[in-house]
Every structure is written in C-alpha cells, then in structure tokens.
Amino acid sequence: MVDRHRLSFHSRANLPGTSPFQAQLCSLIEKKQSALCLAADVDTSAELLQVAEELGDVIVILKTHADAVEDWSKETADALLEISKRKDFLIFEDRKFADIGSTVQKQYIAGPFKIATWAHLTTVHIFPGPAIVRALEEAANKLRNAEMETTNGPSMERGILLLAQMSSEGSLVTGECTSSCIEAARKHPDFVTGLIGQSNLRGPQDNFLIMTPGVQLPPDGQIDDSKMGDGLGQQYRTPRKVVLEEGCDIIIVGRGILSAQDRVQQAEKYRLSAWTAYQERIA
Ligand code: S5P
C-alpha cells in the first residue's frame, strides 16, 4: 500500500475514508496548484481585506487572528467571506481553543467573534482532554442544522485542526499530546480536517492533512536554513524541507510574505517552492 503522503491530492480526495471537507480541500489544492496558507497577521480590517484581495488567487487558505485585528467587526467577517468565495480560498481562524467543552462551545459559536459563522477551520489544543473535540463538533452540527432549516440549502463546511506539534523552540506540545491528536483525528474524521504539525504524523491509512507553520525561504544567497528564527522562539524551515523531506501538506507563511516589497511575487515564490517539492514527493 502506498503511504498517503506519496499520493497526489487528487488521489487522496477520492480515497474511501476521506471526509467530504478533506476531499474539498485536496481538490482545491490540486485546482489552484497551491498548498499555501497565508498567515494574515495584520493589525486592521482594511489591511486584512487588502491582503485577501491581493493574494487570494495564490493561496488555498487564509489564516486570521481575529483578536489581534484592532477593529474586527461583523462587517470584516462578511467582507472576508465574500472575498473567499470570489477568490476560492478557505478561512482559518487560528483561535487555539484550550478550555472545557461548554466554554469552547460558547467561544466558537457566540461571543464577540462568532468564529463558527465565518471560519471554515479553527485550531484546537488537545491538552484539556479529548472532550474538547466532541464539544466543538456538537456545536458545529447544531449550527449546521439550524442553518439548513432557515436557508433550506447546504451550510458552509466546518472543521478543526488539532495542534499536534508546534514550531516554537522548547514547545511542550510533544509526546502524549501529539499521539492524542492523532487518536482524535482518527476518531472524528469528519470534523478533524487535519493536524498542525512539523512532520508527517500519518499512518499508512490516515487521511487527515498536515499543515505546517514555521516556514520561510532563506534570504537570497543563503542555503542553510538551520539557524532561521525570529528571536522570539519562532523557528523556520524551508518549504522544500517541510514538504519533501518531512511529508507535510500545506505550508503556513506569514512574515515571509507579508514583509516583502512585492507580496504577490513573494507569495508566488512560496507557492511554487511548495508545489515543486510536492510534485517531487509524489513522483
Ligand atoms: O506551531 C505553530 C502554530 C501556529 S498556528 N507555530 C506558528 O507559528 N503558528 C502560527 O503561524 C502563528 O500564530 C502565526 O500566525 C503563523 C506563523 O507566522 P510567521 O510570520 O512566523 O510565518
């Protein structure tokens, strides 16, 4: 049997165990020839919508930190959703839920952000215990049923990404935490779309995707990526290393793109670098 990470996204979309949402994401990657998620870490709604317009064609996912956008509002979410539909990318709110089930349900559905109403994906820590996944899935299902009743049509896809490994130096998200994420992903294949990880954490039968932050291209002329970081704990590796050598699926890139003079050209560099590494991996 061929390991999943050696198969094309097209083949993975059509595997029997792949959930409809995982299949949709795999097909989108194949269609846009992009396994790039932009970490849109900007300060204002205007900047957020501008990068979404500018880079929407090059990416498959746009990741937000809504609580770091100083003027976030319902209008921001509505406008971002409109751009995501027009430019065909998913929205991922990097909320990193980490509380008891009843609290995260409220944080997901209600509160000032109402994340579940506009984000297709959100991040979740497993360390409060596996019930956090069940609680969020229950909340997502309730919302979907309510939406289908009112609109009489299909509702938006929703899934979560469990933090199985982190890119930051000295991270304690290791060992038992990592294996609990894998176990939860196997138990909830329709809701756990993937894992945030630094390596291919899949067994030969697993369909979940691996999304990887801590990615940067080295400055021009530098080949060695072993000492790249931001001085605040973030550690970087190249798209080629994480996709080809580590077997990860989607690269998450923030400052590597946002700090460039020409963001479109820079995003295209990252897209191509990850795509070339992926093609080499499945060849
Ligand atoms: O382990 C992680 C998990 C995440 S989601 N390490 C990370 O850096 N992230 C997020 O990815 C982080 O919150 C930030 O939004 C992005 C990386 O940004 P960059 O500017 O360092 O590329």
TrEMBL record:
InterPro entries: Aldolase_TIM, OMPdecase, OMPdecase_AS, OMPdeCOase_dom, RibuloseP-bd_barrel
Active-site annotation: 94, 96, 99
One GO cellular component term noted in the UniProt record for this chain: cytosol
Residues covered by the Orotidine 5'-phosphate decarboxylase domain: 35-270
EC number: 4.1.1.23
Keywords annotated in UniProt: Decarboxylase, Lyase, Pyrimidine biosynthesis
A Pfam family per the record: OMPdecase
Reaction(s) the record says it catalyses: orotidine 5'-phosphate + H(+) = UMP + CO2
The UniProt record lists the keyword Lyase: yes
Residues that coordinate or bind substrate: 41, 63, 167, 234, 254-255
Class of enzymatic activity (EC top level): lyase
Gene3D superfamilies with a match to the protein in the record: Aldolase class I (3.20.20.70)
This protein's pathway: Pyrimidine metabolism; UMP biosynthesis via de novo pathway; UMP from orotate: step 2/2
Molecular function GO terms recorded: orotidine-5'-phosphate decarboxylase activity
One record GO biological process: 'de novo' pyrimidine nucleobase biosynthetic process
Family (UniProt): Belongs to the OMP decarboxylase family.
Listed name of the protein: Orotidine 5'-phosphate decarboxylase
